[in-house]
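Risk register update: the risk of archive-format incompatibility is retired. Evidence:
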Amino acid sequence: MTSIKIRKANREDSAAIATHLLLAMEDIVCEFIGQKDPNKARDFLIHFIHQEQNQYSYQNCFVAEDNDQIIAAVNIYDGSQLNQLRLPISQYIKSQFKTDFNPEDETQSGEYYIDSLGVNPNQQGKGIGATMLKFLINYYVTQKRQTIGLLVDEENPKAKKLYLKLGFKSVGGKILVGKRMDHLQIKPETKSV
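Archived output:
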């Protein structure tokens, strides 16, 4: 594997970010908009990634590049801002798709929340997801002294095993769009005096 570069996303990355995030959340987006059409899910996600001040905005994403090609993307934001970041999405779904949008709160104040992470299927199994997670742990937990949280589907033990190996710990369970999820967090180490 050549050297992977991880960087903050920009607006021009919107389509590539949507492609990668949909790998992790297409079923959830379809549930949100009340449509089973993957193209509508993609258009919906691109619309919001391209905008600012919402939970899926490029402002809240990082991308991994290999030879100037985006091969993975991750969406992460301050959990204390969930309601204000979700508001434009909720309003859009209600006006455009005529469906009610009241998902459970997947995060809360006190953590930066990894909403979704997707790796190009041709690049999976090469440690790219782990590399991105290590980057986020270094950036948020080590440097900024913040807690990172995420939800992992109870039916995805392989992903949970990776998170636990990287230092995440289970802090409880949640239900999100009808699925049982484990809530995992990794916190900055507290220095003993």
